[in-house]
Write a structure and sequence with these properties.
With about 220 residues, this protein is α/β, with parallel strands linked by helices. Helix content is about 35%, strand content about 25%.
């Protein structure tokens, strides 16, 4: 049984994500989860200073409550949880977030999806329009600097992955913008949103967690 560490910026278990990842990985894998906010209460989270300069991230609590935190706050907590995973024998861990993260101290491999996803996007669309869908509007100003290129134009939009009450509005806006490629830029987006986007736009759509699950499978074989 191959051990894979799943390191979330929120709380575990992630019953909304793990089943879909296991569908891609198939049999023979043991997923060991750890969350930066495991042991936190909602009151602890509500006291976090949401300074936009510290990069706002979106995740969820164990009960499904959507929360906002900052990358600055969770990085040391992620390192603590990574150490714990590796003490359990894990040597391949994925950070379940598409934000940028530093190099973690590790005894094995730690996959930070941001670089993988950007590589796929850059290799797939050198000219044309890329639609980047974020989980919160605070991240949208980074779209051009993160994904823009000489031949690519960027359209940024947002919808909550956990309380997605405006999916119809998102679909209408994407159809109007007519992008060449859509990128769902959050691990928390359910696969159903990818299908809705593809059905509405007819365009290729990158679902972050599904793509990274395939990378993890390759690295673990």
């Amino acid at each position: 049984m191959k051990k894979i560490g799943m390191l979330t910026i929120g709380q575990t278990p992630r019953d909304d994500l793990i089943p879909g990842l296991m569908d891609i990985l198939g049999p023979g894998y043991e997923i060991i989860e750890a969350g930066a906010l495991d042991g936190h209460t909602i009151d602890d989270v509500n006291r976090i200073d949401l300074n936009p300069d510290h990069y706002i991230l979106v995740s969820r609590m164990r009960d499904g409550t959507e929360i906002k935190i900052t990358k600055k706050y969770v990085i040391p907590l992620l390192q603590e949880q990574l150490d714990r995973l590796e003490d359990l024998g894990v040597r391949l861990t994925v950070v379940m977030c598409t934000g940028k993260f530093p190099q973690f101290r590790s005894r094995g491999l730690v996959v930070t999806p941001s670089e993988v996803l950007k590589g796929v996007i850059a290799g797939s669309l050198k000219e044309g329009k890329l639609a980047v869908v974020y989980p919160t509007e605070e991240q949208m100003p980074y779209a051009d600097s993160d994904f823009g290129g000489e031949g690519a134009t960027i359209y940024a939009d947002t919808v909550s992955p956990y309380e997605a009450d405006d999916v119809k509005g998102l679909l209408d806006r994407l159809v109007k913008e007519d992008p060449d490629l859509v990128f769902l830029n959050c691990f928390g987006f359910p696969y159903s949103i990818k299908k809705q986007v593809q059905d509405a736009t007819g365009k290729p759509t990158i679902h972050s967690s599904a793509l990274i699950a395939r990378v993890i499978k390759e690295l673990s074989n």
